[in-house]
Amino acid sequence: MTYPTKYIPNAITLSNLLSGCFGIVAATQGNLEMAAYFIWIAALLDFADGLVARALKAYSTIGGDLDSLADMVSFGVLPSFIMFGLIENALEVKDTWIPYLSFVIAAFSALRLAIFNVDTRQTDKFIGLPTPASALLISALPLGTLAWFQMLIASPAFLVVLALVDAYLLVASIELLAFKFKNYSWADNQLKYIFMITSIILFILLRSVAIPIVLVLYILLSIAVSTKSARNPTTE
């Protein structure tokens, strides 16, 4: 590997962080839709840096720490600013502390990332909701155009409860699937393939509104797999 090549994954990670910074600026300017799109860009970059690191065999402790720092900005702070704007827009009384509850997402994202970095159990599974999934959930809110969805995000109570539930899921002791395949056979990955196909269909039909629905399905599937494994501990 040439000397500059090993820095390519870190450059992608920094692009993730910059995307989060740009999204925060958009959110503070009231452009919540653009801020949401920056979360999507950051998520793609977050996926790409790991892919490139594996392809180039460019692993480093700095790269892992940098990834967590970038994720904190893009998937912790940025979603909090989006939720802050949504709650503030939904409230009739503007001079209130209630929108600041949104920053519980940033606080618990930091806690989740710190736990993940030292938790050796989270290699083939996640314990608690990954920060990118949490951020993508929040990103769906300003982008949903369906009437019933617009009614939901116009409710301050719904938004506050969602922020608190999202923060709880980040650190909850719930085993969630990490979509890492030991092999690609249908027999060994049937539930994962069904979930992926169902998710694609939902995205085609509902677009961004599909994100919270897919997330709920993801949690239910993970619980089902975890329960099955507990009953059959010898099953791979």
Count of DSSP H/I helices = 9
Return residue spans where pLDDT drops below 50 for at least 5 consecutive residues: none
Rg (CA only): 18 Å
Sheet/helix structural class = mainly alpha
Helix-strand topology string: HHHHEHHHEHH
Helix content: over 70%
Report on this model:
Helices cover 70% and strands 3% of the residues. With 236 residues, the protein is mainly α. It has a two-stranded antiparallel sheet with strand order 1-2. The protein starts with 7 loop residues before the first helix and ends in a 5-residue tail after the last helix.
What's the short version?
The protein is built from nine helices and two strands, in the order H-H-H-H-E-H-H-H-E-H-H. It has helices at 8-28, 32-56, 61-90, 104-118, 131-143, 147-153, 156-171, 190-206, 210-231; strands spanning 125-127, 175-177. Helix 3 packs parallel to helix 5 (131-143), helix 3 (61-90) runs antiparallel to helix 7 and helix 5 runs antiparallel to helix 9 (210-231).
